[in-house]
Amino acid sequence: MKVVHGANIHKLSRELRVTKDKLIDFSSNILPFEMSEKVMNRLRDNLEAISLYPDSEYFELRGAISRYCQCDMNDLILGNGVTELIAQTIFILKPKNALIVGPAYSEYETELKRNRSNIKKFFLKKEQDFKFNLEGIKTLLSKQDVDMIVLCNPNNPTGTLITIEEIEQIVSMSGAYVVIDETYIEFSKPNSSAVSLTKKYKNLIVLRGTSKFFSTPGIRLGYAISKNQKIKKFINLWNINIFASIIGEVMFDDNTFIKNRYLKFLENRSYLQDRLTEIETIRLYSTEANFILCRILKSDRTSSELAEYLLNRGIIIRDAKSFEGLGDKFFRICVLEKEKIDRLILELKNFFYDIQ
What we know:
Layout: H1 9-16, E1 24-25, H2 37-44, H3 59-69, E2 76-79, H4 82-93, E3 97-102, H5 106-114, E4 118-123, H6 134-143, E5 148-152, H7 164-174, E6 177-181, E7 204-209, E8 222-225, H8 229-232, H9 242-251, H10 255-276, E9 282-284, E10 291-296, H11 303-311, E11 315-316, E12 318-319, E13 330-334, H12 338-352
Parallel strand pairs: 1-11, 3-4, 3-5, 5-6, 6-7
Antiparallel strand pairs: 2-8, 7-8, 9-10, 10-13, 12-13
Helix pairs in contact: 2-9, 3-9, 4-5, 6-7, 10-12
């Protein structure tokens, strides 16, 4: 059973013949903490809105997002999740020669191939602990004709964070469209977002979503920030459903909830890192996201074997060998509650130390 883009819990529960609540999903990178009380109350109080069309201008929603991101609401483009915005941006800008910095989310390459773009790749290296190599990318850009650069910041699956200064150097020197997927930016250190640079550079497009940090993948709410006029012309009417709009209008302004959620996340990520260091047969890589990339050090164990072993025990991880540039020693796990982390560590020790 192959797990790609995080687990399909519905399918896995059918195949394993267990209820979904019996599965522990470390693959989907969604925070497991309770939802904002303000959001839940707003939703309950507006169930009758199902019979209404959303505001076609999404004025209140865009206002809430602009306050949250500290951007001009006129620079916002709403989408049905980040994946749709990736596809839409590539379709509209139609790059002939695109550069992907990897290992990376596979949908970038999928959409570029659909557009028949020539794809160049620059890989972060495990020998350099997957740190961002600005000079290497600048050298490549000086020698290659590139009209779109696709970055994920923090990067999935490595957790690598690119600094604002590094991003600005790329945006200013290349002249290409620079598309930055900030799906995981809320998990990184403060002031890491490139949104502020969109006010200065028209070739910069920042993509963000609500699935991971706000734990709302079901509402499919994504947004882009850019002054690029081409993208703004291709906005579908009513492309955000009424409940996503209603939730977003209060979610982005719930500052106490946002602060508390971030602090709780930091506590749990630190706990996960500490527990993982107990296992000498794996290597952890530094992360600024809500997941940790790990490498198996034992020569007689693979990531696929580990994933299958854990799946048979109701635990799902991401076998990272499907990411180009990695291999069959890499796996990725996200931050969950401490009791679930304890269960994972127990099973990891059983697997690596052959405990029966």
